[in-house]
Amino acid sequence: MGITKRGLVLGSTAIAVGAVVFTGAGLHLSEGQAFFRDSPKEIVDEVWQIIDRTYLDATFNQVDWKAIRKEYLNRNYSNKQEAYKAIREMLKKLDDPYTRFMDPQEYRNMQIDTSGELTGVGIQLAADEQTKKLTVVAPIEDSPAAAAGILSKDIITTIDGKSTEGMDVNQAVTLIRGQPGTRITLGIQRGDRQLKFELVRARIELHAVKSSVQPSPLGEIGYIRLTQFSANSPADMRKALEKLEKQNVSGYILDLRSNPGGLLYASVEIARMFLRNGAIVSTVNRQGEQEREQANRRALTDKPIVVLVDDGSASASEILSGALQDNQRAVIVGAKTFGKGLVQSVRGLGDGSALAVTIAKYLTPNGRDINKHGIEPDFQVNLTDDQKKFLSTNRDKIGTAEDPQYAKAMDVLGREIRKAQQKQQRAQMQ
Description:
By secondary structure, the protein is an alpha+beta fold. It is built from 12 helices and 20 strands. The longest helix is centred in the last third of the chain and has 26 residues, at 404-429.
């Protein structure tokens, strides 16, 4: 499977966001849909078969996967709900929060996300791989959650008073979503503090790329904030870069903070806009086979770049920042990234349900395994909780002198621009 295919999702950290083109026979075969509707056991077997063929870990978490098939197919299922419950039970044995089953409604919710608009409070969720607790990857910019001050790494402990202990991400998303104007209360654990946030659900438009020209002592700077890697992100990024290049900016700050990722192919296409040569990313499946994506000599700019990241920058953000760092094309500033280096394929099943299955992990051009490790910035600037809260509740201050990480990025970019100018002057003198 080519890694630029649109059906591949990185890390699935952003279960509330992610434009995906899904794959699977169930999307096209109406006869198959009827067959699956009438045969709940076949849904269980189809999920087992997909895991058996494609799951990244060939040991299946040290589980006898063939014995699992025998166990679950020896059961009788009187309806689909019993089959769904069994599937979720079966998948738990893999101990992988990113390989998950979605019933038809949950699958429709995920597909709705591809439209570029959400209804809810604007939170990307993941299950922490070690604790299994529901963890905020990042609040969506300009959402009720962001305005209220919910932060990356917050743990959601209750939803309208209901404990999230043992709750999977799909269940949480279903509870959190709802009609615009309705209210919801989230219990949050932040360090050793217990907090409550009363939020009003809203319709949230997703604008992945925002750009502006910022003044600096060394000329005007192109500031680009990329909030997700959706199907539209590469085209929007191209427009932003072309516009800024026409304005003759001296360099760029690419802000990937609180960007939870999205489509793999989107990160590759955007990397090619900054890289003229070199590798971008490689994937490793359970057979150990590697596929490597390369730059295609079609970069839109060769000007200095500083990339801003934080602990909410995940998956596709880590591919892009890792590729630019390993190729010495950009300097990375901020906090260590989330550490999510797994690729999921979403497979539609015959009855309208779906399975997201971890099929590969990705490596940076230098072979770094980002999963659980993240990208280390060249210049580390960690924000305090108070600074994070200030910026989350004063969104207009992001990308200004009152934003400590941005201020450091401007300082670093200034040095990079001076280096580039000196190099150019030396070349002209020869």
